[in-house]
Amino acid sequence: MPIPDFSKVWASNSPLPAYTFSDADYLTGWDFVGSAPPTKNEFDAWFKMVDEKLNWLYGQLQDTASKLYPVGSVYISFNATDPSTLFGGTWTRLKDRFLLACGDTYPANSTGGSATKTITTSNMPSHTHSVSSSGSHTHSSANVTVSTAGSHTHTAGTLNLTGRFQAGKDGQTGAFSKYADFGRGLDDSYNGSITQLSASGHWTGATASAGSHTHTVSIASSGSHTHTTSSVGGSTPLNILPPYQTVYMWRRTA
Q: Are 232 and 129 contacting, i.e. CB atoms less than 8 angstroms apart?
């Protein structure tokens, strides 16, 4: 049913003389006219008074509704009924939005936000990645250079000779034989003296460790490489909505 137009009052444009009910007439009712039927102007005056009262009552209801939901108010309901049919005025429906109290961070009447969020590196906490040993390698020795710093010498050990010194009579042999084939000895007499050395032996001991040093080795940079961690994740946006219950909402604009 459409809302009646209470601004229209019965017999407002009637050419008949206006009739005004007294309080006594109103309280007595139609009996105030006696046994004769009411005249047209009395009848018009009656319905006009009823319309005026209804118009006044409707205005009071509208005023009350305006006070309950003044311009700028939000009406929330589980029903889809447009509040303009209940309270009058002009309303705009709010859709797919949460309400957030404005303040220092969020100014009045501002909008924003998102139902989902795609995480970027700036959103993630600081962390590390483990790297596998793939990429192990060797360096070619073709470009290896060794410095000459640390040149040194080693001293020999001691040569020990064992055996007897043979000298004296004919026919005797030994390391120091008179007839050894090494030339003239120290004494050429027959009765024998020390002559040429003819012996063999072996070294004992070790060379001295003096001359400790280091060598500097330079290896070419060929073989440089990087390690790459494997990629994971599907870049699916996160749903950041809190638990919710949907309702109908309108904002009164006039």
A: no
